[in-house]
Amino acid sequence: AEGSPAGAKAEPPAPGVIDLGAQSGRWAAFQERHRLSCEEAARLLLDAYEYRGLVKHTGGCHCGAVRFEVWASADLHVFNCNCSICTKKQNRHFIVPASRFKLLKGADNLTTYTFNTHSAQHTFCKTCGVQSFYTPRSNPDGYGIAPHCLDDGTVQTIITEDINGKEWEKAVREHKTIRDMSKP
């Protein structure tokens, strides 16, 4: 750059300042058309890029105290487990990595139940008792999401797979993909 000492590197733009070049007009028109702040537009763009091929589902408990969003396929692969707790609660769920789940509200309204190995964290709303998501034993680095707790409009199909939770260790050991479902 002119006026810079020889060998000096150009300074990067200040944080938050991005030169969009020829795209600046499109960016401004997009923000205005969709009534988005710069941060909201950037989040939309980043989500679309990072979660390509996925849909943002929202959902929560019955009373609305707990709300979340999760990025997953529009075509859900749901597990129907016959272990003691899943049978009692009719807990059907699909699994996602923790990075694709965000609790929007209600952390203070959640309580947790554990049993046996205490690996699974069965979270539920203190007010209405609904478990809309939990941390499964098979994927402690992810979340099991109850598809019936998702808001209408984003699920295209649901494929249900029975899993023999009564023989949990054997079922998980023999299942080809369940342990990897929480990997980004």
TrEMBL record:
SUPFAM superfamilies: Mss4-like
InterPro entries: CENP-V-like, CENP-V/GFA, Mss4-like_sf
Family: Belongs to the Gfa family.
Organism lineage: Eukaryota, Metazoa, Chordata, Craniata, Vertebrata
Pfam families listed in its UniProt record: GFA
Entry GO MF terms: carbon-sulfur lyase activity; metal ion binding
Keywords in alphabetical order: Metal-binding, Zinc
PROSITE patterns, per the entry: CENP_V_GFA
Source organism: Loxia curvirostra (Red crossbill)
Protein name (record): CENPV protein
Domain of life: Eukaryota
Domain CENP-V/GFA: 57-169
